[in-house]
Amino acid sequence: MYIEINSPLDMHLHLRDGAMLNLVAPLSARHFSAGLIMPNLVPPIRTIDDVVSYKKRIIRAIQNEKFTPYMTVFFHEQLDFNTLQALKKEILAVKMYPDWVTTNSAWWVKTVDLAKIWHIFEAMQTLEIPLCIHWETNDFVMDREKNFIPIYEMLVKTYPKLKIIMEHITTKESADFVEKYDNVYATITLHHLMITLDDVVWWLLQPHLFCKPIAKRPEDRQALLNLVLKWSKKVMFWSDSAPHPITKKETKYCSAWVFTAPIAIQFLVELFEKHNAIEKLWLFLCQNAKDIYKINPPEKIVRLEKKEYMIPERYYDVVPFKHEQIVSWSFTHW
Amino acid sequence: MYIEINSPLDMHLHLRDGAMLNLVAPLSARHFSAGLIMPNLVPPIRTIDDVVSYKKRIIRAIQNEKFTPYMTVFFHEQLDFNTLQALKKEILAVKMYPDWVTTNSAWWVKTVDLAKIWHIFEAMQTLEIPLCIHWETNDFVMDREKNFIPIYEMLVKTYPKLKIIMEHITTKESADFVEKYDNVYATITLHHLMITLDDVVWWLLQPHLFCKPIAKRPEDRQALLNLVLKWSKKVMFWSDSAPHPITKKETKYCSAWVFTAPIAIQFLVELFEKHNAIEKLWLFLCQNAKDIYKINPPEKIVRLEKKEYMIPERYYDVVPFKHEQIVSWSFTHW
Question: ipTM score here?
C-alpha cells in the first residue's frame, strides 16, 4: 500500500544556526516542501538584514533540496508601519513571545507595555501580515495556556482582520477557541497529538518527551485530535522540531523540545490511517497553510509505503521522538 | 542561634540493599533516631525470615550509630491472622501497594481481589497492626491520588479501629481527608512541602526532582503546608529518601524519587522557622509518630546552628535534593 503527499509543510520549525543548522535543515528539507522558520536565535532575527542573512545560511545548509524557508521576525517594540512594510517582502509572519513565557525577558515583549504596541497590530492588520503568538502566560505549568485566552481575546476582537495564529496549542480550551473567531488559527504538533503528561513524568521520566508547552491531560489530547480529524480548515501541522544534543537532554537540567522532523510525516500518516482519515491528511499537512498564509510552495511529491520503519536511536548527537520504536509507514526513498 | 531536636524520626525510608544500603543507611542513621523501613526490595520483604535478615543487614550497614530500624512487610494475599500474629513482634506496620500503582504487578495486591483480602484487614485491626498504603490509582498522573480516596474510603469506614496511614500525600484532597476520620493518618515528605510540578517540568526538566507521587499544584503544596503548620497530630514526617545512582537519573528514562536523607532536617528547620513555627517542629518530626505507632525510639539529640550549609553536588554517585544550593541551618557535628 502506498500514499503520495503533495508538498507537505512544516509551519513552525526551529532550524537553529551553525553546526546544528547544517545537521537538521537537510532532514527537514528532504521531505517537506517548505517551512515557517522561527526567529528565536540568540540574538533573535529582527531586521531585514537578519532575515536575509539567516535565509542564506538556511539555503546553504539544505544543499540541493527543493525547500522554501518562509521567514519570520521576532516581534519587538521598535516595529512600526514603515519597518513592517519593508519587511513584508522578506517575511511571512511576525512571531511574538510575550515576556512572561520565559525568564530571559530581555528580548521579549513586555506585558506591561501592551498598550504601547497596539499600533504594531494595527499596522500588521493593514499590511496583512499574520501574527504568530506563543500562547502561554507565566502561570502554573498546567494552567499557562488556558489562562492566556482571556488576556489575548481582546486582541482577537480588536483586530478582526488580523490573522492570529495560536502557536502549538495543547489544550481543549484552545481547541475550542480556534473555532470561535474567524481570524484565529492554530498550529498543532505531532507530539501533542500523541502524548500526555503521563508519558513525560509517569513511570519513568522521559527527557526526550519534555517539550513546551508541556503535554497536557488525556482529554486535551483528545480535543486536539478531534479538531484535526474533523478536517478543520483552521489548523496547520508544525513539527516544532527543535534539536538538542544529548548532553543537554540527559543531564541535571534538561532542555525542552523534541526532535521530530525526520519522522513526523510517517507518524502522521499512521495516525490518520488509524482514524480512517488518511485521505484528508493533506488539509492538515499542506492545504490549510497554503490558504491561511496565501502561499504557493514548490511542488514536492513524497511517497510512503506501508512498511515498518525503526526510528534510529540518534541522528548524530540528537535523540529523536520515539527513538528505537517502530512506525508502520516508510518513505519509499530517502 | 541553635536548636536541639530530640529523636527525629523518618517514618518512611528506603534503604535499599547491598552497596547502596551501605552508602545511604549511615547517612540516615547519623541524625535520625529511628526510621520505618520500606519493604519493597526485589523480591519484597514478606516473611519473618526476610524481616530478620534485612534488619541485620541494616544494623550492620549503620555501623555504630544509635538508630532503630522499624521494620515493615509487604502486604500480600497469603497474610492471615496467624502469620500476622507471628510477624507482630518483628514489624511495626504492613505496607500495601495496590497493583495499579505499577506495571510490575507480580508482587502487588490485585485490585480485583480486594474482597478476598478483607479478612487480612480484620486481623490487622484485631492485632493492632497499622496499615500503610501507597495512596494512588493508575489514572492520569495528576489525578491518581485524588481518585484513590473514594475507593479506599470504604476500608477506612469498615475498620474504624484499624490505623491507616496514607503514605506520601501530595494533594489538597488528601490533606482534607486525613482530618475527616479518626483512624486515618498521613506522612508528608520534605520535597512535597517545597516543590510543585513547576519545579519538575517547567523551564528545564529536573530529573533529581522527579518523584512519586509527582509534585502537584501550588494549592496542593499550600494545603500540605497548612496541615503541618497547624500542628496536626495526624501527620508524620518521612523523607521517602530513595537514592538512585546518577546513571539512572540523567538518562533517557529516568528513575523516580529524590534523595533527601542527609539534608532533610536542616530544610525542615528552615521551613518551620520561616513560618514562625520552629518550636512545634518536634510534633511533625518526632512526637506524632511516637503517639501514632506507640513507639519509644532511642534518645538522640541533634543540634543545629543558624549557619549556611552548601548541599554537596553528590554523595558518591547520588545527587541529593537541592544539590549545590544553600540551606540556612547546619548540624553542629556530622
Answer: 0.89
